[in-house]
Prior knowledge:
The protein is an alpha/beta fold. The chain has one domain: TIM Barrel, CATH 3.20.20.70. The protein has helices spanning about 5-15, 30-40, 50-55, 60-70, 85-95, 110-125, 155-165, 190-200, 215-220, 230-250, 255-275, and strands at about 20-25, 45-50, 75-85, 100, 130-135, 140, 145, 170-175, 180, 205, 225-230. Bound molecules: 1,3-dihydroxyacetonephosphate. GO terms for molecular function: aldehyde-lyase activity; zinc ion binding.
Amino acid sequence: MYVTLKEVLKDADQLNMAIGAFNTHNLEMLPAIIKAAEKQKTPVIVQTSCGTANYVGHRNFVAICKSMAEEYGVDVVLHLDHAKDFGEIRKAIRAGYSSVMFDGSSLPFKENILETKQVVNFAKKYGVSVEAELGTVGGTEDGIVVSQDKVYYTDPKNAVKFVAETGIDALAVAIGTNHGQYKSKTNISFDQLKQIKEAVDIPLVIHGGTGVKDDDVKKVIDLGIRKFNVGTELLVGWNRKSKECYDANKENISNRNNVIPCLDKIEEIVSRKINLFKNLSE
Ligand code: 13P
């Protein structure tokens, strides 16, 4: 079924697992993400940046997510990732996205509350879920670099006020992860996460999932992470395989010979991640 973030995260909480949220960077990647979820028998969150949504067309993403959710019998959430602009949020919701993230993390605290609240009020009218962020996740986000001196962790006391006043469905936390970190791994502040988890009672979201060590996945899920964002690993996997294929194949060969190996790579990465996020190992 085509569902909301709130619904899948509620089930994840009961099962002490996280739902994988995978950034698709084009229309072609999307089926591979949903097929991997079908094989792993878990719900899946497909997310797009505003840039990708505008380039592919919001309604195209909505149509494919809905039709594949039905055809494959998988619960699919279509989520807008890191929208900083209310206009982009309205566009996605009106086109049929079932979840959005408003990212007011660079705003002063009070403004972040006010703007997030506006988004929640609008989204509620459409039955759409809202994720918001408090604190700063470092690294590179859609080409924009957040310098390390601008990074600050989510403050648990502020988180209590933020959640109560905004009515959001999920909170993205800053605990040491970085967007776009694929050449090394992150040192997570588990203590910070523990304090946030003890302070608020809503599902928590980890960004920069590519840079999280496999061994840390279980630890953060046990500390309340319910949505696990992964983007760069898919992008790098696709680009590497793509280069290999385009270099090896003749230029007049059908394009599917270059694209299908990339899709297989995406399916392999998503499957492996979902398996970790099920949090089954002892
Ligand atoms: P990575 O690209 O580092 O995996 O992070 C994805 C993400 O957090 C999207 O919001």
